[in-house]
Write a structure and sequence with these properties.
- 2 copies of one chain form a homodimer.
- The first copy, chain A, is α+β, with helices and mostly antiparallel strands.
- Chain A has 3 domains: 134 residues, Butyryl-Coa Dehydrogenase, subunit A, domain 1 (Orthogonal Bundle); 125 residues, Butyryl-CoA Dehydrogenase, subunit A, domain 2, CATH 2.40.110.20; 295 residues, Butyryl-CoA Dehydrogenase, subunit A, domain 3.
- Helix content of chain A is 56%, strand content 11%.
- Chain A is built from 17 helices and 11 strands.
- In chain A, strand 4 and strand 5 form a beta hairpin.
- The radius of gyration of chain A is 24 Å and the shape is globular.
- Chain A starts with 7 loop residues before the first helix and ends in a 7-residue tail after the last helix.
- The relative contact order of chain A is 0.09.
Chain lengths: 598, 598
């Protein structure tokens, strides 16, 4: 059975030394996030994840969710108790607004905890995860009345939330959606239609489920400009604000999926269900985007989280499994064979994962911190800059961390040989679970298009310039620092490839938009390499500083960081050249053939 | 439900035009493989695959195999009937020796059919697939008596075969194996021990199951030099050569796996089972290697096969699914949205798969043809050269076609968006099935080590020189051919990277064997890129010739080949540079950290 140990030490290094969140203790919520408090919270989260959530991850996959004839859904054994522990720990409201009962702590801390939850039990973590997306959308766009009515219960965890976008004929292209909303006389709406792939759509964990549903108000324009967002509670509230009448929102079936079996993915049928408009009519997509950005960071984090737990297990196996001898002579002469971690190719796989996970964690927290600043800073220019960067980098967090996360999980499974393919070892579950993160919340190809088609050209490329400036300032600062050259030199090479790609896009993407589409995925991954490389630069800088200062007795921690950084630059960064070559080859080779020739 | 259409036209192009198998009609078996005969056989195989095997692939995955209390195993519904059809069609003996009832046709033709079988139903195809491996080992190393006793029944398909290598504590490192063989007075042996991961170990398809079992004869030396190979039939034969007494070879359980559910993967318990020595005592690994080489080509073929069927389905979906509009304006203005195949990023994924599959098919057939020549040619030098090349390239067929095949299958699933994650669409089964091919028959890291540590240095690098000579002769021949430059120029760049890598290995691998281990996987993939590129060079050459000659009314076939070849060289070949950089970075970054630091 798999193990999991939350990466508390690494997270503290990132929050304290690399991101130095103390700098922001003048921002709301950050003043309470003292080093002691942060350490205590991460420790408590680790306990919940290691002792409560991880032990029911494998059993939850095997058991799955059960839909009963009356449309109710039962989660796997132990999930109700685990959710109770989650709620009692106050985890749902960690970063939520104190106005509605939240603790208002930084989002960056919430993200650090989020990684642990998904490592321990991704299917479980989705129940609260979707709730937090719904909370964000109501908070940002709901009326005061809606906020007062729904947020306190959701933030305490008594009620959960969902996102209802997809219909059978429309996923990416929401302009095609058909679910309709008919205005009633009392200001509410009657919602009818079918939604699919609704995670946590029906279950037995909470007293009410608050569905956020995209629908088209009768007579609204066609396409994306005629879509509105509604709250559709499973139980319509009574006069006291408690769950009352059962609403016409029912689970028609649960999907049989490749993985995340313990999360109920529902076909939801809306049949004259009572709904409440959030924000303005026909501005539903706008309101939903708040949820989607948050959700995309959360999905990127899932990619990292599964890669991390898969890595930890692969390491255990690689140290325990004895098979063959080192090419340079026996390393465990007392045993019949050496542990397979002596083999360079096994280390190659492990270090590949490790170097991407540790940089991915830094990148995810760095992005989440930008989110905090963009919401909480008192300085408008600082807010704008942080918002620019977070917007630019969200598709990269989502697309790159889930693509790399999946590949890493597959590599971790590979280290197990045949045992990796057998269910009881648990590695194949990680692969099946990790796979969805590349698909939902906008398939990764859509993330790449969002980056190249929207985020990059936005405001005349302001966000991209800001990002490049930040990285170039960093490498420039260390230009004469001998000890930093193994890190900054290959980072500069990556930056050069990214600059050349950007230039190529500016020159060729306008003339023929297919050139931008043809470059998109490679551009996203190239930028991901540079972003992760920048994180390794920052981590190397802090590690070298710490070693110079005596390292506080943590010499090996910092030396291992530097070794992993060197691996990244020698073995991962070289992909940059391939991406550049593909980008510069343009769209011609893609568009030459007729559709019928495929 | 997924579809499948056997690639008959493409296979004929390869056999006739590219490989020109007519050249070999002086070899045994080839004289019967006339163009008409080949076309008829491929047509019949296509019918079996499309109409009989593919329709029970998805249901077989859902139903799986069932082990009963008495240790017997039932295959999924329809498998018995399908196996009957397979046997009646004479497919088991297609390339088997006429001395024992086989048809003796070329192995290259057998391989072409093998791809179709695995595309249609990989779990099914493994039952006869393992039998063919067993046939090869008995044929090569068995005594005349053993051959007369077992081969006719196996070649007709009444009896099936298995390979028993792995034990719980030993997979790659067979030197650790413990299953023991005690000589009996009548010249037989009593076999006792436990084997795991035994594909097709027990089932209801055949009258007898002929297990090939590696075991250690009492008193034999430790390690790999004390291993012998035995035939252990499920039923010991009676005096007439028919299945008689039940032998002590029983299925203890069937493994719950990630995929290939319709193939029974057994824990096999041997308890004083009667066994018959194949070949010499303590030379079992040698005899088993015959089976393993054959099996490795067969597994490479599975990687290609699943990638092909996944591709075909992704194409159907990409043409039917309408979502969004082309970046260059509506392409299906009469519909609410364009089919997603208009998007460059969707085409990028499809062409990536297509360009690797078509070259992979060529490479697989090219390698199989070398196998034919190495066995059947009357010219000793020709035999030796073919054997050199087949030995060198077997780990690449296995490692590269299964790694790329898996990635391709994942990409094909990605094109389905959320639907790809749902079981009923069938794409996730392909991913789960394809995954095993990277693991079994020597995990791909072992293939890479076999290439770099054994095949490359063998006979002073003779095989590698031969391969490079062949590719360089090809590019040299076209040096002044303008029309070939888009293909040969990037191929030469790939060759240069391969030459530089080989040189680096020669200089650094001897001094420090870890440098070879550290380079192995990248070297295997770099050589794979060149091998597939060489195939594209050959296919482009023949397509240009055909177009010049009027193309026989198949202009678009050849033009699409050229377009796909250009995609390969512009978009896939650039990976070569990243591999070279990683190889040249050496082992230091891998070996720097203590095992405890992972």
């Amino acid at each position: 059975m798999p193990i999991y140990k939350a990466p508390v030490e690494d997270t503290l290094f990132l929050l304290k030394d690399v991101l130095n969140i103390d700098r922001y203790n003048n921002l709301p919520g950050f003043e309470e996030a003292t080093p002691d408090m942060v350490e205590a919270i991460l420790g408590e989260a680790a306990r919940l994840c290691e002792e409560v959530l991880q032990p029911i991850n494998h059993s939850g996959d095997k058991e799955g969710c059960t839909r009963h004839e009356d449309g109710s859904v039962t989660t796997p054994s132990g999930f109700k108790e685990a959710y109770k522990a989650y709620v009692e720990g106050g985890w749902m409201g960690l970063a939520a607004s104190p106005d509605y009962g939240g603790q208002g702590l930084p989002y960056v801390l919430h993200s650090a905890v989020g990684e642990m939850l998904s490592s321990a039990n991704m299917a479980f973590a989705m129940y609260p995860g979707l709730t937090q997306g719904a909370i964000a959308a109501i908070q940002e766009h709901g009326s005061d009345e809606l906020k007062q009515t729904y947020l306190p219960k959701m933030i305490e965890g008594s009620w959960t939330g969902t996102m209802n976008l997809t219909e059978p004929h429309c996923g990416t292209d929401l302009g095609l959606l058909r679910t309709k909303a008919v205005p009633a006389e009392d200001g509410t709406y009657k919602i009818s239609g079918q939604k699919i792939f609704i995670s946590a759509g029906e279950h037995d964990l909470s007293d009410n489920i608050i569905h956020l549903v995209l629908a088209r108000i009768e007579g609204a324009p066609e396409g994306t400009k005629g879509i509105s967002l509604f709250i559709v509670p499973k139980f319509v509230l009574d006069a006291e604000g408690n769950p009352g009448t059962r609403n016409g929102a029912t689970c028609g079936s649960i999907e049989e999926k490749m993985g995340i079996h313990a999360n109920s993915t529902c076909v939801m049928n809306y049949d004259d269900a009572t709904g409440y408009l959030i924000g303005e009519e026909n501005r539903g997509l706008n309101a939903m985007f708040v949820m989607m950005n948050e959700a995309r960071l959360g999905v990127g984090l899932q990619g990292l989280a599964i890669s991390e737990v898969a890595y930890q297990n692969a390491v255990v196996y690689a140290k325990e499994r004895i098979q063959g001898r080192s090419l340079t002579g026996p390393k465990a002469p007392d045993k019949k064979a050496d542990p397979i971690i002596v083999h360079p190719d096994v280390r190659r796989m492990l270090l590949n994962i490790k170097s991407i996970n540790e940089a991915g964690r830094a990148f995810m927290l760095w992005s989440a911190l930008k989110g905090d600043i963009s919401h909480r800073s008192g300085d408008e220019k600082e807010r704008e800059a942080a918002d620019d960067l977070m917007g630019l980098l969200t598709p990269i967090v989502k697309g790159v961390l889930t693509d790399k996360g999946f590949d890493n999980t597959v590599a971790a499974q590979q280290i197990y040989g045949g045992h990796g393919y057998i269910q009881e070892w648990g590695m194949e579950q990680f692969v099946r679970d990790a796979r969805i993160a590349q698909i939902y919340e906008g398939a990764n190809g859509i993330q790449a298009l969002d980056l190249v088609g929207r985020k990059l050209p936005k405001d005349g490329g302001r966000a991209m310039r800001l990002f490049m400036e930040e990285v170039n300032t960093f490498t420039g600062k260390h230009r004469d620092n001998e000890a930093m050259q193994p890190y900054t030199k290959p980072l500069r090479d990556g930056v050069k490839a990214l600059e050349a790609s950007t230039m190529w896009l500016v020159q060729n993407g306008m003339a023929n938009p297919d050139n931008a589409g043809a470059a998109s995925t490679d551009f996203m991954h190239l930028m991901g390499l540079v972003a992760l490389g920048y994180m390794w630069g920052l981590m190397a800088e802090k590690s070298l500083e710490a070693l110079k200062e005596g390292a506080n007795g943590k010499t090996s921690f910092h030396e291992n960081k530097l070794a992993t950084a060197r691996f990244y630059f020698q073995r991962v960064m070289p992909e940059a050249g391939a991406h550049l070559a593909r980008i510069q080859s343009g769209a011609d080779s893609l568009m030459a053939m007729d559709a019928e020739a495929f």
